[in-house]
Amino acid sequence: MRRKILFSQPALNYRFTLLFLLALTFIGCSKKLLITSPLAVTPDYLKQNAFTAKKAFVLKDNDLAFASKIDIIKNAKNELRLVYYIYDLDETTAFMTHALLEKIKTNSDFRVKLLVDYQWNYKNLDFFRWMENQQPNGIQQIEVRFYNRPAVSVIKFAEFMTIGCAGDTIGINGKTPNCADEKQRYLNKYNSLLLPEAEAEMSLEAKIFLAGFYSKDPNGLLFATQLGYARELQNLAENSSSTPTMTEDVKENLKKVMKLYWTAKTGNNAERIKAQIQLSIMGLFYGEQLKPFINGLETILPFSLKDLDNSPLMTNPEIDYITDYSHHKLILADNEVAQLGGRNCANAYHMHPNNLEKKYIFMDTDVFMDLDTRGGNIIQKTYDELWNYTTMVATTASIEKHAPIGYLYLINKATKMAEASCPKNLSDLEKQGCALQIFVQLMESGTEGLVAEKQNEWGAKYEKYLQSYQDNYLDKSTNAKQWTQLETLFDSNNGYIQNNTLSNTLHSVNAIPLTNQPMFYVQNVPYNLTILKRGNLKNRKFGSEYDQEIEHGKMIQKLWEDAFQAACAKSNVTNKPVEVIIHQGYFSPTEGVVQEMNKLMNSNICPNVTLKIYTNSIGTTDLTPINFIGRRQMQYLLQKNNEFNTDRFQYYEYNKDRLTQEVIDNFLNQSSVKEEISSFSLHTKVIIFGDAIYIGSANAEFRSYMMDTNNGIFIEDAPELVAAYKKIFEELEAKHIVVEAKQHINFNDVKQLRAQEERDVSALLERYSVNERESMANRKAELEFFIRQFYATLDQVTVAMKKSLKKKKLKGPSELDALLKVF
């Protein structure tokens, strides 16, 4: 999952910073306990989701998993439902989109629903509108919706950021000495409005602001705020009787605030944390010594804006959870066939290493299922509940009402025209003012032409990528790829798996077959999943609480907790060894999982349980901070007074050098070796509990528990599947593709761990050539400050772990989970 990471910074009161950014337990005793398995009687939250897969395959190979998705599309009869976090237009996604378009071409009654994540996919909005506009039969047969649309509180924030305080600017006669109060009165109109009504009330500036935010376009944000407060800046500069005169330096500082705000939300890791720190420091210094400027600054930033209940608007959970993702991965055809797991829609998930994908090739796990009637109905119902959850799901038409992306195209055009026509000796502020004037003039012609042009560009990209997949991937054969058509790999009309000799070189197990296998469909959603509340989707749930997971929609983590305990109970009942295996690309366990792991390793509670973890190393992951946090957690668990210093606990990491050598030896021509090559990274989300197994999209880390939607399947009794999956680990260990790495996380104290962290950070800086980049030449001090604050965050993890393991029972919300939910 290539996603952006937002750092938490407790050392400088980062809760305050986030306001700016939209920001069953066992009883320990001295003797072995005999515990009844909680899954001996299926709990209600699972019972209602039980079904049977008439035929199923656990798919480890990327090409095979992509071939099965294409097979599902080609063989669908009436409808397809898809939901993905990432749907990026590249070679494989173009081929998948082509299959969808061919499907609707041949059947005018065929319908496609595609739900994608708003945060990740908004920037490509016109690609999805281009898809909707492909109407070979003269009617719309493909509909795309976006998860986590901006709520009313977010709209209010956008309005606040883009309106000035001059009376006629916001419809209030006369001028008041307090800008924030004036804005508050104006924005109170939103308190009684439903979301569609609020969208209809939005100003143009607020719409551009949201478009700039979701497209990660700082120029859009700056134009929106300038449009809104340009008049107010002039008033502040000229009217000294109401507020102090603003110098050019002060104006520049206000502009920098906006840039910092944007960078803190969307920059790379180093840029984000630096911007957050600077915003926090600015907040600390807005005290008595700068009181004369408070009114002016309140024009720009909502320090005191109140919500409907008189609480600060920026503590509204809709803003605090604005970056919640739709992290589902699912394709469902006709309530008959489905595939889910860890793979998004992009080259990195659907290819072997090749010259088209230069960064990561993800190692993942999907499940293809031929469903019984009950299973099809269950998955369709859960999909439609999410699809129709208009509180959080937007159509492309509704996005046009609250975040019209066409204005960003207009801003881009105005900026280019300004570069060519505005005087060259202007200051940055004057250049932006010149571009703003051109933008206002261009607005008279509207955005329709630019939108149509952009959609045509997406259409051309689609054609280019489609041809590239055929020419540069399908038609290419190497020693690790001896096929040129996907039907050669997977064809459900001719016995499903067609090529048993397919090899990904990492291990020999590419597909594990299942027949008439009982399963449970599990999911995380933003609403209550108890039977009595099911279908009552009015109230969105935020975060989660221990022992209240189902009420908060977090079925997957509740399942994990129960399954951990069931594995222990089984080992005690049978007095035989039981293995719990966590195979996860991103391993930084929540407080609940930490507690369950700690119990498994307690020799008085679960003496026959072995816990194994297989995860990314710092060298193989695309989300390095997760490894640093997870290592802090494991370092504390491995202390001498804890139970993890035992052979019953094993910890493996993927070996970067061996994975690179696999790529060089088996996937690329030797002539390509000197070029930049794609590297393997683990993306799988699997946990084995004895003979039970979970496969899905949820990571064993904080976001998957506190924020994102997820889905998966749980099989309670699958010894053959588990044995086949374990064979993968045996081969990985034998080839040294994974290596025992407990010694890398077993430190005597935090001081020793810090020394290793410093070595790893230095290696990362060298790996990404940070010290050689010209852009970093004048930012060494900022980078060093960022690194110190990151270490401070890691120290907070250690403190939180100590507090957590002192608890005899978890209840309610977790401070540890809340601390790290934004990573």
Map the helices and strands:
Blueprint: H1 14-20, H2 44-47, E1 50-59, H3 62-75, E2 79-84, H4 91-106, E3 111-117, H5 118-121, H6 125-132, E4 142-147, H7 152-162, H8 179-187, H9 195-201, H10 204-214, H11 218-238, H12 248-266, H13 269-285, H14 294-298, H15 317-320, E5 329-333, E6 337-341, H16 347-350, E7 360-363, E8 366-371, H17 373-387, E9 393-395, H18 396-402, H19 406-421, H20 428-442, H21 448-474, E10 490-491, E11 496-497, E12 511-524, H22 555-574, E13 578-584, H23 591-600, E14 609-615, H24 624-637, E15 649-654, H25 656-666, E16 679-682, E17 685-689, E18 692-696, H26 702-706, E19 710-715, H27 719-734, E20 738-740, H28 742-745, H29 750-767, H30 780-805, H31 815-820
Parallel strand pairs: 2-3, 3-4, 7-16, 13-14, 14-15
Antiparallel strand pairs: 1-8, 1-12, 2-5, 4-9, 5-6, 6-8, 10-11, 12-19, 13-17, 15-20, 17-18, 18-19
Helix pairs in contact: 1-13, 3-4, 4-21, 6-21, 7-10, 10-11, 11-12, 12-13, 13-30, 19-20, 22-23, 24-30
Please provide a written account of the structure:
With 823 residues, the protein is α+β, with helices and mostly antiparallel strands. It has 3 domains: 62-149 and 324-403 and 451-497, Endonuclease, Chain A; 152-321, no CATH class; 524-820, 2-Layer Sandwich (Endonuclease, Chain A). It contains 31 helices and 20 strands. Strands 9-4-3-2-5-6-8-1-12-19-18-17-13-14-15-20 form a 16-stranded mixed β-sheet, with helices on both faces. A two-stranded parallel ribbon has the order 7-16. It has a two-stranded antiparallel ribbon with strand order 10-11. Residues 1-38, 166-177, 233-246 and 276-300 have low confidence and may be disordered.
